[in-house]
Queue: 3 jobs
Job 1
Amino acid sequence: MCEHVFVRWQNQSIEHERKAALPGFKEPAVVRSFDAPEAIGTRFYEIRARSAINKVPERSRMPFRYTINPYRGCAHACAYCFARPTHTYLDFNAREEFEREIVVKVNVPEVVRAELARPSWQGDHVALGTNTDPYQWVEGRYRLMEGIWEAMRDFANPCSVLTKSPLLLRDIELLKQLVEVTDFTANLSVPTLDEKAWRETEPHTPHPRKRLEAAAELNRAGIPTGVLIAPLMPGINDAPEQVEEILELAGEAGARTIGGVGLHLRGQVREIWFDWLRQYRPDLVPRYEGLYARGAYLPRPEQKRLSRMARRGRGVSGARGMRDEASKPDTTGGGHGPAGPRRRGQTSLFDA
């Protein structure tokens, strides 16, 4: 286990505390900032959620219908994140406030347990990581995921998670218990191994090679774990040799599934992404203006090109390729969503 990638909060002190109202929440949030290097310039809004298991709209093509999001906002600061516009519902902006004003649902484990116990609950698959990363580094402080996994284990409820963080390894013993009683899959998102592209597109995420190492450790422990190469960004991380390297290492990690998704630019994310291009890759601006001239999704030929590269993972160390998701838009409104099997043996699917 790579301890240095985990946030250590034991000796960190609260630097400032106040209260603030958030739209949609009855009680004011307790707003904290912490005296920790990782938390500089970030505020955490502790709220008590009234519900935890969210229903995905029926029009969505996602293979799951329920999600849990213990956090809103994400310190990973991925330039392409689809969840950014959801922060505007809280009167925050989709840019720097999405990264620095993080909402923490401090009671979410208890609410999840109560909702799973309802007679009306049918034991549907629940996906985590569909909006913001549940293992972003502040999870090292609040440790909400442990209670969520315990509830899922105790009710033998099918579930899955998608993350960019090896912090998932902290809960490996709970995940082992989960797979003994229900369907569970873990998925690590690895868009690129290129150091420059990684640092510029997702600046506060753990190193992508550490994610692959985490996938390997999880698979060795008997926890079905896949790798998602997403988003695939033309001219940035889509060169065949870049994708092939991820495929090879994912295969060595024993990835149960390998898949890829082309970049989607919906709503405000389009503007944010083009601002990013103008700062880091101005040479690509004309190309992207052409690719996304007709909407939020890549043209079909480009989608097929990208999905063909990712599907080569079917032949890597026994990994199963994933259904071509490049042409299937995510209509959940989420940022990066995993899906696990609804029944044992069914291949998992993601969107990113």
Job 2
Amino acid sequence: MNDSKLTIRILYVTEALLLVGAVGAAVRLSSSQEWRPLPLVGLLLILALVAERLEFEVRSQHLSASLVVLVLTMGLLGPAPAVAFGIVVTLPNSALRRVSRADWLNNLSAFAAFPLVGALIVRALIGDVHDPSAQHLTQSVTFALVIFGVFMVTNALDFALIATETRMTRGLSLSRQIREQFIPVQPGQMAMGALTAALAIAYTNLGLPALFGLILVLALFQYLIAALLRSEDRADQLEARSVHLASLQLGVLTTLVETLALRDRTTARHAAAVARYARALAHEVGCSEADQDLLHTAGLLHDIGKFALPDRILHAEVLSDEDWAVIRRHPQDGATLVGRLDGYGPVAEAILYHHEHVDGSGYPAGLIGNEIPLASRILAICSTYDTMTARESYRSPTTPQDAMAELRRVAGRQLDAELVESFIAMLEREGPVTFAHGDDADFEAELAFERRARKIAQPAAS
């Protein structure tokens, strides 16, 4: 806590020194020429104050067109007017918003520092804009490019100064601020930078009347920001609706899976174990991260069709032929349930065919070999192995070694031979204990549907 307070105090001292240093440098560099012509000084000051009053807040970031005027001041007048205008424009808004003393200091130091930096960049690249010998540069495209560059640099510097203070006093990371506040508005800022450069070159070639185009710029800025706010609101509302819909859809599946788990904990633990096996085998055979996640989800849901089974079958120790006929419908029932969830078509397909055999003797479609989706072939191996080795099953459990021998025995007829060898190699390398049958806690952890709800609500990458 003491370290945090000390860090914040150091920040405030640094900001105070930055403010004093910027003002001191501006005073030292100041000359009477920088405040001429007076009509230009007066017009820029008035427009700067007006622009700052047209401020908008977008994602906690305050945006205004005052930067346009300040950059013109940096380029057309010089360091002293730029620093003075920067300080002047921040005073009314800070007072009206009743910001804290710390925010007062942060605003003043930022609006003194970045105008000074911008003006010094112009002076370094162009020279004294009031010197007649620099006229050929100030009326050229070079000057416009310099003004555009200064706009983008000072825009970034202003953000950096404010964001640093926010990071140190409120704990909001710089990366998050850049991602959520800085990057989204950059296309608009680049457009404003281009307009600022055009106005600067128009003034140096056509004189003061050209700057009355600033009024149009301010109006355009207000329109663009209002449109941006409407767009942000619509995007936020759409994301909220998408996440809500995904949550509702997944909520139905979650309820079914958990209800099935209450009816039969064996099925729940089997689902957790198969999900873990399936992800590991998918990784073993080189599947992508997305496909590994798909297999994990399909493993959790592969027996969801058993929700429709009556208790007399679900808990039976011995199954009749009629009972097996009912059980064989569960892949189709499960695929139908999962397929109604947006974005879960591939999962539904994996569930539908996970009881197919590579020799065509499986169900429900009698697919052969590679006609069976890879995900289904992986699920079949994982489910078969776990059923044989689990403590709770329709038969007495076998040892991992006997189960692996059985997998090899049915490979090429029931199961994919190459995948079986990959699965056994993985078990022998990692050890069967690593992939032990899941318990209740494993099932709850593996389910993790809340994360899935937000993930599937996001637009798919093009």
Job 3
Amino acid sequence: MLITARFLNASLCLLLAAAASGLPRETLAQSYPARPIRIVVPFPAGGTTDIFARLVAQRMSETIGQPAVVENRGGAGGSIGADAVAKAAPDGYTILMANITLPLASVALAQANRAPYDVDTDFAGISIAANVPFVITAHPSVPANDLREFVTLLQKDRTLKYNYGSTGPGSIMNVVGEVLKRDEKIEMTHIPLKGAAPLKQELLAGRLQLGGDQLSSSLAEIRRGALKALATTAPKRVAILPEVPTVRELGIAKLEIEGWNGLFAPAKTPRGIIERLQRETAAAVHHPDSVKRLTDLAAEPVGSTSAEQDAVLRRQVAQFRPIIRELGVTID
């Protein structure tokens, strides 16, 4: 028993010394991946971000030596899924596929003192998988051909009772609607939905007059005339819809925002694992079959560096934090 105790004590000392020197993190990165990787999508299945996550998961499963599986954890503006990743072990086995909702919803949660994570410190960017513009859409019955005409319509006819829909409080469409109400002095009722799919269905049914999401979600409906594209939030006109103006062209530059879908790991994930995941993501989105699929969805394959993913998140948090504070947008 004495020998065993001494052996155990010595082993414990060695383990503690190794932990202090950082060797376990290096060993973890060298042996990664040793089991399946979980890609959390913080929205219901069927939306653009879910489609992109499954595309990356499929290609990654073929090259990384382990299955990559998608788990949908929607709710609270995407914060439930984001929080699950923020609090996961920083070992590369639980990662997040997010979009432009992450910076906005995170700021709105903080505004309400309900943020379960810190968007500034709890995530490590892996890669921007793809860029996809955000498009603001209307039901065909709305007599306006662009967002400026839509605003003018409501300014001139105060009897109109229009609803705008969003994918939830703190989402980009919620911010778009509230900025228009405040700055353009118009009235609309906000109808929050639980994802892009139900938002589109309500818009197609005419129960909403204004909505919007990533262009991939509504391109088919725009092309067949079931929805009107009033504006994009992109810095320049979208090649696939050259007739649709940008918000900047329409005098609403405050709403300009880059559209992206990208991967994050928990903070403190070893750099070697981040780099491996970045390489796998870039390879996945630039695979010829992926390029065709993404192009068909009006998306641009990117596969950026981890630093570029971190930078776009910081930039958009800084851009919209004061706007969300001014508007008082919160997530209940």
